[in-house]
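Possible regression after last week's pipeline update?

I re-ran a chain I had predicted before the update to compare outputs. Posting the input and the new output here so someone can diff against the archived version. Not blocking, just want to make sure nothing changed silently.
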Amino acid sequence: IGAAGASAGQIAEHFGLPLPTLSFHLKTLQHAGLVQRNRQSRLLIYSADFTTINAVLGYLTENCCAGHPEDCGIPVTREA
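New output (post-update):
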């Protein structure tokens, strides 16, 4: 699927989900700001909002893992 995004049909096929089920979840994720929807011609393309996702992960790591992501099973990577 990747950063370029995909149509709901492509995502549903990739994950083996019925389209109505996926549409429900995409709407919820979009409402939460975790997914963006853009129109490309006649298609609606959904893509992850990595800035928001990273902010949520940072918040959860700091506040739910007490600043120790390894305690929550989150792989620790260091930026160069």
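Follow-up from reviewer: compared with the archived run. Residues 52-80 form one domain. Marking as no regression found.
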